[in-house]
Recover the amino acids of this structure.
């Protein structure tokens, strides 16, 4: 028996499974068995091993791509910035004079603040980047939430932040999304970030989610809420929204810059 050859084929098959999930975001056991001409039990063993390694998330009947660990904030600010700017600029067009807003600390949401066109609005944020973007606008009533400094996401989080959010009610929330999946909903890399997002959602009349195509069909660590918490999804033309059919969403798509096909816009 050529055990070395068998081992090589197993490793190659598992590598191909990861490539499929990278490109298609999800796959079923049945489909993978047909693609690789192996039994469904073999595929299940492959998926179990990949989940143990932390490379995928198993689901009933298949698997989802796991999101990559977050990269440093400074890199996220410049990564795929053309796509982030396009998403943020389109979302900012939804703001009307006199609106009250929350803009969260996601790097895509920062572009909402940078491209905001109204002269009068109330803005609540836990992001110093958002605050800096709006600090030169004298007619924007800006409130910066307190809390514990999260150096990974460069924002304020924790119970103090959550308690302060509870004192407000806003018209619109602009929410960057780390991962979005039909079954698992909206998830984030850290519990601190997820907890603040949950508090923001609870005080907003309208939740406007910002997510490029790479975030759809992925799952991260901490649960924020079901996919149905989103009222409007601002995404790009490469996004596959088919799994979300039936949700009462408005989907707004922007053109994807060429760079978006080569680099994902992390948060």
């Amino acid at each position: 028996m050529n055990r070395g050859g068998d081992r090589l084929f197993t490793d190659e098959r598992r590598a191909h499974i990861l490539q499929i999930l990278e490109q298609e975001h999800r796959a079923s056991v049945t489909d993978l068995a047909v693609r690789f001409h192996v039994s469904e039990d073999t595929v299940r063993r492959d998926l179990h091993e990949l989940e143990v390694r932390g490379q995928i998330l198993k689901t009933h009947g298949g698997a989802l791509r796991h999101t990559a660990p977050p990269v440093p904030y400074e890199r996220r600010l410049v990564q795929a910035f053309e796509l982030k700017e396009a998403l943020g600029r389109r979302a900012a067009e939804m703001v009307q004079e006199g609106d009250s807003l929350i803009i969260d600390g996601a790097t895509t949401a920062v572009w909402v603040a940078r491209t905001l066109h109204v002269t009068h609005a109330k803005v609540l944020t836990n992001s110093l980047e958002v605050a800096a973007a709006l600090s030169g606008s004298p007619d924007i009533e800006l409130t910066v939430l307190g809390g514990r400094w999260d150096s990974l996401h460069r924002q304020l989080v924790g119970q103090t932040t959550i308690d302060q959010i509870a004192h407000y009610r806003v018209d619109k929330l602009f929410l960057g999304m780390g991962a979005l999946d039909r079954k698992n909903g909206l998830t984030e890399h850290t519990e601190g970030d997820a907890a603040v997002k949950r508090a923001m959602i609870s005080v907003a009349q309208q939740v406007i989610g910002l997510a490029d195509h790479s975030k759809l069909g992925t799952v991260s660590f901490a649960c924020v809420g079901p996919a149905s918490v989103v009222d409007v999804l601002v995404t790009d033309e490469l996004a596959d929204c088919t799994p979300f059919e039936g949700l009462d969403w408005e989907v707004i798509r922007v053109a994807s810059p060429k760079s978006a096909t080569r680099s994902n816009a992390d948060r």
In short: The chain has two domains: 3-66, 73-261. The first strand starts at residue 26 and ends at 28.
